[in-house]
Amino acid sequence: MSFVFVALGGALGAVGRYAISLIPVKAQFPILTLVTNIFGAILIGFIVGLTDKKGDVSPNTVLFWKTGVCGGFTTFSTFSLEAYKLFENKAYVLGGVYVTLSVCCCIFGVLLGRKLAAVIG
Predict the structure, then answer these.
(1) pLDDT per residue over 33-89, tens digit each?
(2) In angstroms, rounded to a whole number, what is the distance separating the alpha carbons of residues 64 and 58?
(3) Would the pTM count as exceeding 0.70?
(4) What angle do CA 73, 110, 49 make, to 5 degrees?
(5) Cα dist. 93→20, 70, 81, 83 in Å?
(6) What count of Cα atoms within 13 Å lies in the side-chain half-sphere of residue 23?
């Protein structure tokens, strides 16, 4: 049964990621993937923060949100490919900025999500 929760959450996350990719942005910098990863980091931090605070969250609920939704929504593989392409095209500064912002902002996003969970939960 746990596979069903992961699959349903994954479908929801993938649809959310696709919806963000449809936002019409024309830029060399992969801003939509960056925004998706930051939001995904905030979301997973929020989920972990809530489940840490409330010990009575069902394992299937955690699987749905953390493994399913966040796994289907975040785009680390896409991030890696886009960073590679920036470096391959000799856009070293832009690639470095992209990698640095992605990692730092997403780690901060997890912290922010946990703090939000502490305030709301």
Answers:
(1) 999 999 999 999 999 998 887 778 899 999 999 999 999 999 888 899 999 999 999
(2) 10
(3) yes
(4) 100
(5) 25, 29, 16, 11
(6) 13
Q: Enter the tokens of residue 43.
A: 């979301």
Find the helix packing angle between 76-88 and 31-53, rounded to 10°.
Answer: 150
DSSP annotation of 65 reads I
Residue with tokens 């391959």: 88
φ and ψ at 94, to 5 degrees? -60, -40
Q: For residue 99, give Cα distances in angstroms to 7, 27, 79.
A: 29, 16, 8
Chain segment 3-22, per-residue pLDDT in tens: 999 999 999 999 999 999 99
